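DM from R.C. (forwarded with permission)

"hey, sorry to bug you on a friday — could you get me a structure for this? deadline for the figure draft is monday and I only need the backbone to look sensible"
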Amino acid sequence: MSYLIVALSNAITTAQVLPVADVSTSVNNNTSTVSTLANMLGGLIVVVALIILLAYIVKKLNLVPSQNAIIKTIAMTQVGQKEKLMIVEINQQQYLLGITAQQINLIDKLVSPIAASTDLFAQNLQQAKESHHE
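My reply, with the result:
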């Protein structure tokens, strides 16, 4: 009990010694702390919103195709604004499809399968570099 009284009296003495300028400085420090926390929270909200937006874009554009799907997209090329040709694989058999805004048509069942080129972008980039240097 006496320890508690000594600690309380020390706290009261310390509080009485503080000048008025220090109290205003502590108030300014509190407002700057709140301002800093608000800035950090705002930045966090922006980053989380950006992550959600990028995830939506990747999902919408199908930039990450699933490897375990039954129907696999082997290749795709735009023919017009809303028309494209696509090669899909179902049960180790490949099909050439014509896709428009209104319908999907089977153009051909491919006899010999086409291997999907994973280095296509890298090859195009290398060719562009070589043609740029010439």
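R.C.: lifesaver. Residues 2-61 form one domain.
me: no worries. The chain has a mean pLDDT of 76.
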